[in-house]
């Protein structure tokens, strides 16, 4: 390997893509193409980066298995950064096995981190945790240690383990500073802000307030009877009863939880659970049946007692009752939550991440686009969706510079 390739590689490792391009921009050999691809990825030109890396992998051919596998891993990282979840994970696994066979332990660790990040992004937390179970990031370079700790923090946040998440983010920040890569430090800061952003609403005692992830964790570990509107569960002290497949029963439970310790009138319950504007004897009979079903479901935690006006929730043990709700309750909240990361998603990747059909996602995106909640660019398979940027200060590149006369 010549000195220019070595210098370009060092520049990329230090987060200096321009310095790397100055050394290899005019070369078309496979090593230079690979470095140009990584440099373009660091500059955000992901489509061009992917094209260069594919060309480099093709030129390396099967006789140069290690550099070819490294190109495939770099392409997998670009696919993950561009939210292209349809990129084949089997190719990443095959490249990882090739590098394991040749003793490239650093890039094997990088491939494992990418695999874990993909599993985390599509919500397969058990598999993500399992993939990191025997992973020791200590001997890795600082940039890879930071990426590994970000995945650990992401899993911990999803598991409501805020202490573990804060520890991982502190280690990630330290490693990112050692690497001295601005983009990595920005990613760590963004993850830390997510940890402190309000994660849910607590509705109890007639009050509705935003609470952080740490407060949600403390709430679910307490003796409080929680009607969890995020997952459609009723929780208390580590136990839970799922009403995810019983929407009417959950609507009744939520109405009773929001009103606790007061009761809720029958007409109010009919309006909330059955959307009934005018009630008759058949509605009231149906309400009695569903209240009986709810009483059976909650028999280990609480009773649903009839009052002169309607019904009231009465816990078996002396405790508070409250409703844990999402920060914003509106249609397609899960879709908007995925798009809130600021990245441009394809509808097929959103379908993979949400575990639903592409057609369902496309219909939802169409509805959100008509109200201006999401925007798209590109056409056909290249179409991408994102949420509109909030108004704020223009980028510094748009600000007028000093005039020639100044």
Give a description of the structure.
The protein has 18 helices and eleven strands. The strands form three sheets. A six-stranded mixed sheet has the order 2-1-9-3-4-5. With 406 residues, it is α+β, with helices and mostly antiparallel strands.
Which helices and strands, and how do they pair?
Elements: H1 3-13, H2 17-24, H3 30-42, H4 46-60, H5 65-81, H6 89-101, H7 105-121, H8 125-131, H9 142-158, H10 162-179, H11 182-196, E1 200-204, E2 207-211, H12 213-221, E3 225-228, E4 233-236, E5 239-242, H13 247-259, E6 264-265, H14 266-274, H15 281-297, E7 302-306, E8 310-315, E9 321-325, H16 333-339, H17 347-354, H18 358-370, E10 375-377, E11 384-386
Parallel strand pairs: 3-9
Antiparallel strand pairs: 1-2, 1-9, 3-4, 4-5, 6-8, 7-8, 10-11
Helix pairs in contact: 1-2, 1-3, 2-3, 3-4, 3-5, 4-5, 5-6, 5-7, 6-7, 7-8, 7-9, 9-10, 9-11, 10-11, 13-14, 13-15, 17-18
